[in-house]
Design goal:
- By secondary structure, the protein is α+β, with helices and mostly antiparallel strands.
- It has three domains: 98 residues, RNA polymerase II/Efflux pump adaptor protein, barrel-sandwich hybrid domain (OB fold (Dihydrolipoamide Acetyltransferase, E2P)); 91 residues, no CATH class; 217 residues, Chloramphenicol Acetyltransferase, CATH 3.30.559.10.
- 34% of the residues lie in helices and 24% in strands.
- It has twelve helices and 19 strands.
- The strands form five sheets. Strands 9, 12, 15, 16, 17, 18 and 19 form a seven-stranded mixed sheet that branches. The protein has a four-stranded antiparallel sheet with strand order 1-8-6-3, with helices on one face. It has a four-stranded antiparallel sheet with strand order 5-4-2-7, with no helix packed on it.
- The longest helix is centred in the middle third of the chain and has 18 residues.
- It is globular and about 80 Å long.
Length: 416
């Protein structure tokens, strides 16, 4: 008896998704609720679990296909490991026949799947593994269910601990481009993920719709660095999370938004909607790109609660378990390019929001204090905003409020 696998409800107003990666092959045994395929929506990747235990039969869609909510994408045959041998080969034959072009990736999956632990790799991770000639079984995965992430592979590259022994499969992978192009001039064509397509459309729409303007300031990080150094151990012991800079900046932003409510507002038609709460979107790096989950009611949270929430988002992003609800909404965004070494940038707002604060790297620079040139740890701040709604005076006032709160964190305690 066969059971249909259907595309689940993906969230409010989301009606379709792209097939990102099949996590099981036809003929593989599957457990109840075990993920068998990953779907990509406009914002997040969603694993589809098996509705029953059995054997994966026919895959009715290919990786990259667009599927609607409720569509049947596969069938689960009755049985388990070693049971019902007849349906599995038939399913394999049916799945293999329509897509000869996918033969090379499929073979690569099989080879990797035969490694210890039945390793399943995403396309991006697979490319890195092949590109650097690594043995995935020698890399410890930190993603969901022990899956390898791009960070895991890059760490292994840096450590030099996962070089693969020479095998026909390993030598064949890099040889393919050389047959058709001169060394160093090969190309790779990869379809954009649905997430990347959506990001591209939204950012371009923001440029076309909003009157974007960016204003800059710099901030002396001395006081925050000293506070962090003094209390980080006690903070982690009490709250179970590290004390970072984002907690300070989020509190400073929330305080500044109260003083300059236009920065926390948005345009809807011919109306301005002022939000009396601060739902702060924070840019988090994920294996498939940058995602922006939301800290809800951040204005009423402590620094510890903010740091815990951000830490949880970072873990979920790495594991690929962020949900549509995590990403929904947001009234203002903080993006920290400094973790990647950025000195200065002009961030783009995330519609329908009207403002985004860009943080950058901290570096020692000479500054004048009390008539003396001294060296201080300085950071550039950048506020990009929709000039249709926010005047220059308001933008500068907001940015100066953030600067003052960071340079004198006591202001965060007494709301100054």
């Amino acid at each position: 008896m066969a059971t249909e696998v259907k595309v689940p409800t993906l969230g409010e107003s989301v009606t379709e998704a792209s097939v990102g990666q099949w996590l099981k092959k036809p003929g593989d045994p599957v457990k109840l609720d075990e993920p068998i395929v990953s779907l990509e929506t406009d914002k997040v990747a969603v694993d589809v679990p098996s509705p029953v235990a059995g054997v994966l039969g026919q895959q009715l869609v290919k990786e990259g296909d667009t599927v609607n909510v409720g569509a049947v994408i596969a069938v689960i045959e009755a049985g388990g490991a070693g049971a019902s041998p007849a349906p599995a080969p038939a399913a394999k034959a049916e799945a293999a026949a329509p897509a000869p072009a996918a033969a090379a990736p499929a073979a690569s999956d099989d080879e990797e799947g035969s490694e210890p632990g039945n390793i399943t790799l995403s396309p991006a991770v697979r490319r890195l593994v092949l590109e650097h000639g690594l043995d995935p079984s020698k890399i410890t995965g930190t993603g969901k269910d022990g899956r390898l992430t791009k960070d895991d592979v890059l760490a292994a590259v840096a450590a030099g601990t996962a070089k693969a022994s020479a095998t026909p499969a390993a030598s064949a992978a890099p040889a393919a481009p050389a047959a058709s192009a001169a060394p160093g001039r090969s190309q790779e064509r990869v379809k954009m993920t649905r997430l990347r397509q959506t990001v591209a459309k939204r950012l371009k729409s923001a440029q076309e719709t909003a009157a974007l303007l960016t204003t800059f300031n710099d901030v002396d990080m001395t006081a925050v660095i000293e506070a962090r150094a003094k209390y980080k151990d006690l903070f982690e012991k009490k709250h179970g999370v590290r004390l970072g800079f984002m907690g300070f900046f989020t509190k400073a932003v929330c305080m500044a938004l109260k003083d300059v409510p236009a920065v926390n507002a948005q345009i809807e038609g011919d109306e301005i909607v002022y939000n009396n709460f601060a739902d702060i979107s924070v840019a988090v790096s994920a294996p498939n790109g940058l995602v922006v989950p939301v800290i809800r009611n951040a204005e009423s949270m402590s620094v510890a609660e903010i740091e815990k929430t951000i830490g949880n988002f970072g873990k979920k992003a790495k594991d690929g378990t962020l949900t549509m609800e995590d990403m929904k909404g947001g009234t203002f965004t903080i993006s920290n390019g400094g973790v990647f070494g950025s000195l200065m940038s002009t961030p783009i707002i995330n519609p329908p929001q009207s403002g985004v604060l860009g943080l950058h790297r901290i570096e020692d620079r000479p500054v004048v204090r009390d008539g003396q040139v001294v060296v201080r740890p300085m950071m550039y701040l950048a506020l990009s905003y929709d000039h249709r709604l926010i005047d220059g005076r308001e933008a500068v006032t907001f940015l100066v409020a953030v600067k003052n709160a960071i340079e004198d964190p006591t202001r965060l305690l007494i709301d100054l």
